[in-house]
Structures are given as structure tokens and as C-alpha cells.
Write a structure and sequence with these properties.
Blueprint lengths: L1 H14 L4 H16 L4 H12 L6 H14 L2 H13 L5 H17 L2 H18 L4 H11 L10 H10 L3 H30 L10 H26 L5 H19 L5 H34 L2 H12 L3 H18 L2 H18 L4 H14 L8 H10 L3 H5 L3 H16 L2 H9 L4
Length: about 425
């Protein structure tokens, strides 16, 4: 009875427009008040314990690093380097869009930040150079999805914190799928650009220009190298890496670019505090829901239902994926991780799926929804930058969604694509 009551209250509050953090919190409070003989103090203790972890300190720090990178002009050098590297390929600005998202993913870990930073710079330029508005918006929204897969990843930090899976292992496991997404999207851009006659650079970049852009952007490119190298090499934890990223971005902005003024720093801190505060409020409010779900043995019930349909682990995993894809398209990604990861992770492990393998499958499923209607927050942000109704971009995004689904199926069928790197690095 309690799970149905929980779901009903949640659906009603969400449908009337209550903000998601308050929806989660009120859902728990009302459910406990109506049907559970549980002291309310335990609910608030669960909320506190949900955010009282060393791991979650990485969230505001990575967000601050991303804000500093955007506000000090560091992102401009990343765009220059990508343009020099792949701008000559057919659909050059589209290729730059994807390549920049892959590099920026190693800095912020946030798809929405990626959309705002890359989209603001490239969507107007793409439209000016003859690319369709729908294509420019759809590509920006889709390529931003790479952000939460290539580490550091906010989604992976949250997943690891609620399932006790190694975050460093998740980071290493996400590299190959992230690169696969990037290559798949760049190939799609190339094919669509040839068919539609999208432009490329009039002449190839000289070796001198390539060397100049690399030298100019090298300090910025060191950010993901330092972060990933430090984590995967065992030099520091993901939380410590977030602090290193902030310190390096601030040093770069103050000394190398000389654009980091006290005012800019204060603006970056405020923006990061607002964003991380909203995420951590959701974390706190969602923790008691997972606790109630565990008390009611919902994972065991779901596992029994799935095994009643099929005992084949692959078929069961595909059923879970179908459900997660639907969830991702109608609910915010972080909420899905916090509520449903503790539900489905034990089910998948019970079916014989490797915990690290399922973690990457789960995160990829959920983030696909960031670029698909009706939720599709990255698509909405990109449409706002491109100044077109989001409905016009929904058809244009489908080829890129197909690439995401194809990569998802590949990593489901071939677990070693995900697991070989963590094992090689001794992280798993």
C-alpha cells in the first residue's frame, strides 16, 4: 500500500507544478503521516544523512570549476583548438560542437552547463554559416549528453554515493562509452552535412596554426588531464580532484588569462552555490524515499516481477533499460538516479549483472532523456539559445538519439567495453 501511496502523492504534487525538491520532501512527509508508524524525526535524520557524505563535496567543487572555466574565457581556447583540429572536416562547426562537448565534459560533468557554454558560442555561429537552426539546436542538445558520461560526472558521483559502487571505477568505465558517443555523433554530423551541403573550412589549417591553437589551449586542456590522471592514477579521490580542478581553474584565470577578477570569482561562486544547492536539496529530499522503498521491499518485488517474465539476464536487463529510458524522458536525471538506482541496482546484481557495468548502463539510460522530449532539458536550453520552438528540434535530434541507443545496446551486449579499463587500472 505504501509504495502506491508514495507514487500517487508524488504524481499529484508533480502534476500541479510543485518544485521537484519540495515534491520529494512533501511526498515522504505525507506518506509517513498517513500510513506509517514511523517517527517523523527519522525522516529528517535520513535527509541529513543523505547529504552528510564526503563524496558529495565533489558536486559544488566541480560546478565551481565549470563556472570559472566559462567566465574566464578558458572555454574559448578549447573551441579554438577544436576548430583547428576538426573544422576542416565536412560540417566543420558541427564537428567542433561535438569535440568541444567531449573536452568540456572533462571539466564540468554537467550536461546543462555544457549546453549553455558550447551553445552560446556555437549555435549563433552555426546559423550564420548556413546550418539549419533545428540541426544546430538538436546537435548541441545531443552532444551535451556526453558530459555526464565522460568523467568527472555528477550523475556518476550521485550513483556511487547511493549504491556504494566505486566512483573512480565508474569514472574509468565511462571513458570508452563517452568516446563512442562522440565518434558516433561526429560520423552522423559528417553524413548529414554531406547530404545537406553544410560547409567546411575553405582551406586547411597550417601546421603553424595548429601548433598555435594547441599552445594557446594547452593550459585549458590540462584541466581534464589533471583531474582524470589524478583520479585514475590513484593520486587523489574524486572529491580531492574537484578541489584541485577549482584551484587550477582559478589560477589559470588569474595568472594566465588575467580575466579572473574578484567580481568574476564572486559571480562564479554564487552561480555554483545556486546550482549545487538545488541538486543537494534534491539529494536530501530523495534519500528518505529510497529508505521507505527499501523498508517496503520494493526491489525484491520488482525482481520477482522481472524474473516471472524471464529468467534470462539479458532479457531482464533489456526490460529494465526500457523502463529507465521512459523514466529519463519524463523526470529529471538526478532525481532518477537518487530514487531508482537503489531500487534497480540490487535487482540487476541479483540477475548476475556486474555492479560497475550496470552503473554505466543506468547513467547512460537516464541521461539520454536530457535530449529527448518531453523533459529534454538540454534540448530546451539549446532551443532557447537558438531562439526556436523546441518542437522544431525534436525531429532533428532523432538521428543523434539513435546513436545514443546504439551505444547503449553495445555496452549492454559487450560488458568488456565498460570493464576493461577499470580492471587494467586496478580500480576494480
Amino acid at each position: 500500500m505504501t509504495p502506491l501511496l508514495l507514487l500517487g502523492i508524488f504524481a499529484v504534487l508533480l502534476s500541479v507544478g510543485v518544485p521537484i525538491a519540495f515534491t520529494l520532501g512533501l511526498t515522504v512527509i505525507l506518506t509517513v503521516s498517513i500510513s506509517q508508524n514511523i517517527p517523523m524525526m527519522l525522516v529528517f535524520q535520513q535527509m541529513y544523512q543523505g547529504v552528510d557524505t564526503f563524496t558529495l563535496l565533489a558536486l559544488p567543487m566541480f560546478m565551481l570549476a565549470g563556472e570559472l572555466m566559462m567566465r574566464t574565457g578558458i572555454i574559448d581556447d578549447i573551441l579554438l583548438f577544436c576548430n583547428t583540429l576538426v573544422g576542416r572536416v565536412r560540417g566543420g562547426l558541427g564537428q567542433v560542437n561535438v569535440a568541444s562537448s567531449m573536452l568540456f565534459a572533462g571539466i564540468s560533468g554537467s550536461a546543462v552547463s555544457d549546453t549553455a557554454a558550447i551553445g552560446s558560442a556555437l549555435i549563433p555561429s552555426m546559423k550564420k554559416n548556413g546550418y539549419d537552426s533545428e540541426f544546430s539546436v538538436a546537435l548541441t542538445g545531443a552532444s551535451s549528453v556526453i558530459g555526464p558520461i565522460i568523467p568527472p560526472s555528477i550523475g556518476m558521483i550521485l550513483y556511487g554515493s547511493v549504491t556504494s559502487v566505486s566512483i573512480a571505477g565508474l569514472f574509468a568505465a565511462g571513458l570508452v562509452p563517452g568516446i563512442m558517443l562522440g565518434i558516433g555523433m561526429m560520423s552522423t554530423v559528417y553524413l548529414l552535412s554531406r547530404r545537406r551541403g553544410y560547409p567546411r573550412a575553405a582551406r586547411p589549417e597550417s601546421k603553424r596554426q595548429l601548433a598555435f591553437s594547441l599552445a594557446k589551449g594547452l593550459p585549458a586542456l590540462f584541466v581534464p588531464i589533471i583531474v582524470l590522471g589524478g583520479i585514475l592514477g590513484g593520486v587523489f579521490t574524486p572529491t580531492e580532484a574537484s578541489a584541485v580542478a577549482c584551484a587550477y581553474a582559478a589560477l589559470l584565470g588569474a595568472v594566465y588569462y588575467r580575466t579572473l577578477t574578484p567580481r568574476v570569482f564572486a559571480e562564479a561562486v554564487v552561480a555554483a552555490m545556486k546550482l549545487s544547492g538545488s541538486v543537494l536539496m534534491i539529494v536530501a529530499a530523495a534519500t528518505p524515499i529510497g529508505w521507505l522503498i527499501a523498508i517496503e521491499q520494493v526491489p525484491q518485488t520488482i525482481a520477482g516481477g522481472i524474473t516471472a517474465i524471464s529468467l534470462d539476464p539479458l532479457i531482464a536487463l533489456l526490460l529494465i533499460n526500457l523502463f529507465l529510458l521512459i523514466l529519463g524522458s519524463i523526470m529529471e536525471a538526478n532525481v532518477n538516479v537518487l530514487i531508482f538506482a537503489p531500487v534497480f541496482a540490487p535487482v540487476a546484481v541479483g540477475l548476475g549483472v556486474d555492479p560497475l557495468h550496470f552503473g554505466i548502463i543506468f547513467v547512460l539510460n537516464i541521461i539520454i532523456g536530457l535530449a529527448t522530449p518531453p523533459f529534454g532539458v538540454c534540448l530546451f536550453v539549446a532551443a532557447g539559445i537558438g531562439k526556436i520552438p523546441v518542437e522544431r528540434a525534436m525531429i532533428a535530434v532523432l538521428p543523434f538519439v539513435a546513436i545514443m541507443i546504439a551505444v547503449l545496446l553495445l555496452i549492454i551486449l559487450l560488458p568488456e567495453l565498460v570493464l576493461f579499463l577499470p580492471r587494467a587500472l586496478g580500480l576494480y
